[in-house]
Design goal:
By secondary structure, this protein is of the alpha/beta class. The longest helix has 22 residues. The radius of gyration is 25 Å and the shape is globular.
Amino acid sequence: MEVKRRKLKTENDDIYEGETKIRPKKGQPSRRYFMVVALLGILFLGYIAIAYDFKPVRLGSKAIDTLALSLSLQSRFYVVVVDAGSTGSRALAFSFYESVLGGNLILDGEHYFQTEPGLSAYADKPKESAKSLIVLLDKVKAVIPQSEWQHTPLSMRATAGLRLLPGHKAEDILQECKKLFENSGFHVSKNSISIMEGTDEGIFSWFTVNFLLDRFSTHNPGNTVAALDLGGGSTQVTYSPDATQEKKLDGHIYSVNIFNHNMSVYTHSYLGMGLMAARKEIVTHGMKLNNVNPRANIEVRSECINPIISTEWSYGGFNYLVKGPISGTHKLVKTQNFAGGEEDRPIVNFSECLKIIEKYASKIKNKPEGLKDHEIYAFSYYFDRATEVSLVDPFFGGVVQVSEFLKQATEACNYANTDQPFTCLDLTYIYVLLRDVFGLEPTTKLYLYKKINGHELSWALGAAFNIIQNGL
């Protein structure tokens, strides 16, 4: 996957060099030829053995690869990617093999592990940040043969959580994690640990979604889908625009080589517009925390919190005591009991909360023109919040319209949910983000999934491909 930026330079201009497949070593084609012949012979004998049942046997590439793996004529190799996000760290251990026919790189399996909080929570205790990853590495070691550890690349990419920290604090955390990784037994290079640019995060996510959906098979950019990734600290929007849209998106277009075919891809990362970062700015009204003791509970009141709610919340190394407004809104609701009557219910003033969130979102001027014309897959916090209010099934996902987030937001604001006190705020923010920032219509469909064909929807798979082809 080779990417060239049309306007702005990145710190890693060569990060995407190479092709998305493993190049055969010298002399390997002849070995593969004989392997194919041997396997076809074995499959033919299998066909003869069951011929009495008169059922045809399909001699496909997948069957040959499966047989090669079972007979140890082909071997798996592994890549481990640690996603150091703002709210938690995830480790994804991928296994791959090289297809006997064609030599293409095949994704074979995936293991997913996570821990909370994110590394940014250890801003003043960098040694503790590294310790928080030990449990992830132990779980990864349990699913990868020990004989493969020294050959398995281990990489960590930190996202918006560390991007939002002061430079020296982020660097201290990275150095402690580097020490841990170098003693892990896995293969670690000088480029293995870094803070990832939002551009890379967006393109890797887009690649993951379209690869798992097999949208690259036709080499037609119009066949690809848009990817919306809502993280804790930032949010990314990435898609392949048509020629008309591309003219309006100058400055955020990249030339991407996917399986030896070039595509124009738009990607933009909005730092500070992730769900947790936005929540923090909304409830604190953008207060500065330069002289605040990080150990103290910072009391804040918000129109987007129910008047009777009082909840503790931690983000970015600070602890908050979040409450609703002093002069809260109430409404009379008819009770459902036999006696009838009315109940005085405390609620969030939805119109006031909406104004606050709209004002926060209005600072975004650079918008993704034409996004609404694409098939859109949304994941991470989009999926999580949708499942919490039963918009989609938590196991199978589903398709919803943008307007359904508005409906669920207004309903959530009418109840004091002590178990999920931020539901009203979060859903309202997601709706405003989709409508005002991304320009989606109320009827625009969103495909909300956590997994496709058993694989997580995240940027990590795209990063793993990049690691393999560049030997990082």
